[in-house]
Amino acid sequence: MKQKTGLVMEGGAMRGLFTAGIIDVLMEQEIEADGVIGISAGATFGCNYLTKQIGRPLRYCVRFAKDPRFCSVSSLLTTGDMFGAKFCYETIPLELDIIDNETFVRQNVPFYVAATDVHTGRAVYHQCRDVISPAELDWIRASASMPLASQIVHAGDYELLDGGIADSIPLKYMEYKGYARNIVILTQPLGYLKQPNSTMPLVRTVYRDYPALIRAMERRHIVYNRQLEYIAAAEAEGRAFVIRPPRRLPVSHITHSAERMREVYAIGRQTALTVLPALRAFLAENE
Tens of pLDDT along 132-189? Predict the structure, then answer.
């Protein structure tokens, strides 16, 4: 019996353009997954894997790199969101670089996102049925809403922030959902270990009414590093095929440099092409 294959995409803000380069190669090579999950930038960029819009994330990031509505301190000060919520999650996908919802729905492949419940500090998982309705866009936005740089997002019955707080790399969740083998795209190189959050004094002040969220953020580096250990074990056992940058990516969470965006995307493409034979061999097993 054929095993179901999942695709797991980590976040990382603009490091997510590395992921965008990888999924473009997967689309070009007609490599398809049976289920997909994205966290933060892995959700906002990763949904294009199911709309089959090769190049779209890089295209709109470059086009709006210096538009203050897209990402700016002025947006943070005036709207509460560094990445402008209305511009990024309404104007771009519905007007300026239209997302192909018809193709997304026609694929009929489960697409999950995760965000962090600010009241419990736990991950909340949601399957998006489309990528244009306000309700579903709220979930994608919630998954990518970085603490201190975003407003708390209301989606469904929840108040949410960045999914990476509670579950940065949801391989276990996909295995729980029945995806026995998974392609895992990371945005940090081999050997990376997350360090304690240096902004915790400010976090404790800003989110003083959300003690569970504070605890989750205090422990995030511990949880993340344990996830890396789990992923390494899954990789060694042949349950996961891990694609990671060959070196530290030349970008932080935010950049306004179109050249730097193209560079990160190109590293993703080249990495995908390099591992392509091994990936095909992984997918051929147990078919």
Answer: 999 999 999 999 999 999 999 999 999 999 999 999 999 999 999 999 999 999 999 9
For residues 141 and 128, give the distance between their C-alpha atoms in angstroms, rounded to a whole number: 12
Which residues, including other chains, have CB under 8 Å from residue 1's CB and lie 6 or more apart?
none
CA dist list (Å): 147 to 33, 80, 83, 143, 160: 31, 11, 12, 11, 10
Helix (H, G, I), strand (E, B) or coil at 154: strand
Q: Residue 287 corresponds to which tokens in the numbers above?
A: 């078919």
Distance from C-alpha of 196 to C-alpha of 206, rounded to nearest angstrom:
18
Backbone dihedral angles phi then psi of residue 241, each to the nearest 5 degrees: -110, 115
56-89 b/e with 16+ CB inside 10 Å = b? bbbebbbebbeeebbbbeebbeebebbbbbebbb
pTM: 0.97
Give the largest Cα separation in the chain, rounded. Answer: 54
For Cα atoms 96, 27, 178, give the angle at the middle one, nearest 5 degrees.
110
